[in-house]
């Protein structure tokens, strides 16, 4: 496969996906669709939402498209924010607002109880149908304050075992260990075998 559309409005995701999938050419579906398509992420799981986004947008492009639905699951919050990660602090919440709310909710929780994981589900779709889904996870803890300016979303609060936050990693380092990398590796394996 030489070229793949991606159904995302998130520039941070798009950049990571393009880097990880090289040499496949990655194109944003929203750059080629003239209409204003908005997909309601009403699913209860990352899989459902990835399919919703991929299947809907696949009807507007020629060929294969992938959608990424991802988020953060925090142990002490019983898996929240989960599928609500992007809108944790409200419908149009900024990353900063989401991070602040997370810190608030974890006030007084000690480090050993601050376990969390990032989850990424990639759906591969075509002509309104899902061909396959792939899941990647990355484990860490929630830090006591935000640190670092790389990445996006909850990266400044996601503490790795070496003591750095995900936002303190260089882009290449994040792309080696991330949930997104793990899901996309499976996609690459699938594409190499099926196409
Ligand atoms: O739906 P699209 O258009 O792809 O973009 P989005 O930002 O709304 O994406 P999601 O619905 O999948 O929500 C994922 C949220 O989870 C968080 N997230 C996902 N991957 C992340 C990562 O690698 N690092 C930090 N936060 C991440 C971040 O807050 C995202 O906004
Ligand atoms: Mg979204």
From TrEMBL:
It catalyses: ITP + H2O = IMP + diphosphate + H(+); dITP + H2O = dIMP + diphosphate + H(+); XTP + H2O = XMP + diphosphate + H(+). Coiled coil: none annotated. One of its GO terms (biological process) is purine nucleoside triphosphate catabolic process. Mg(2+) binds at residues 40, 69. It is an enzyme of class 3 (hydrolase). GO terms for molecular function: dITP diphosphatase activity; ITP diphosphatase activity; metal ion binding; nucleotide binding; ribonucleoside triphosphate phosphatase activity; XTP diphosphatase activity. Substrate binds at residues 8-13, 70, 152-155, 174, 179-180. Keywords: Hydrolase, Magnesium, Metal-binding, Nucleotide metabolism, Nucleotide-binding. Its cofactor is Mg(2+). Belongs to the HAM1 NTPase family. Pyrophosphatase that catalyzes the hydrolysis of nucleoside triphosphates to their monophosphate derivatives, with a high preference for the non-canonical purine nucleotides XTP (xanthosine triphosphate), dITP (deoxyinosine triphosphate) and ITP. Seems to function as a house-cleaning enzyme that removes non-canonical purine nucleotides from the nucleotide pool, thus preventing their incorporation into DNA/RNA and avoiding chromosomal lesions. This is dITP/XTP pyrophosphatase.
């Amino acid at each position: 496969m030489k070229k793949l559309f991606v159904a995302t409005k998130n520039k941070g995701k798009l950049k990571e996906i393009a880097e990880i999938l090289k040499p496949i050419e990655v194109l944003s579906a929203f750059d080629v669709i003239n209409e204003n398509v908005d997909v309601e992420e009403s699913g209860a799981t990352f899989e459902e939402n990835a399919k919703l986004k991929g299947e809907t947008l696949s009807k507007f492009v020629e060929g294969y498209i992938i959608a990424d639905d991802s988020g953060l699951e925090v142990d002490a919050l019983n898996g929240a924010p989960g599928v609500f990660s992007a809108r944790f602090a409200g419908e149009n919440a900024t990353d900063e607002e989401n991070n602040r709310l997370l810190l608030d909710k974890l006030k007084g929780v000690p480090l050993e109880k601050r376990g969390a994981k990032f989850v990424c589900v990639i759906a591969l779709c075509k002509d309104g149908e899902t061909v396959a889904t792939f899941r990647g996870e990355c484990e860490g803890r929630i830090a006591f304050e935000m640190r670092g300016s790389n990445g996006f979303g909850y990266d400044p609060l996601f503490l790795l075992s070496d003591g750095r936050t995900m936002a303190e990693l260089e882009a290449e380092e994040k792309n080696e260990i991330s949930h997104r990398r793990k899901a996309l590796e499976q996609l690459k394996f699938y594409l190499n075998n099926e196409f």
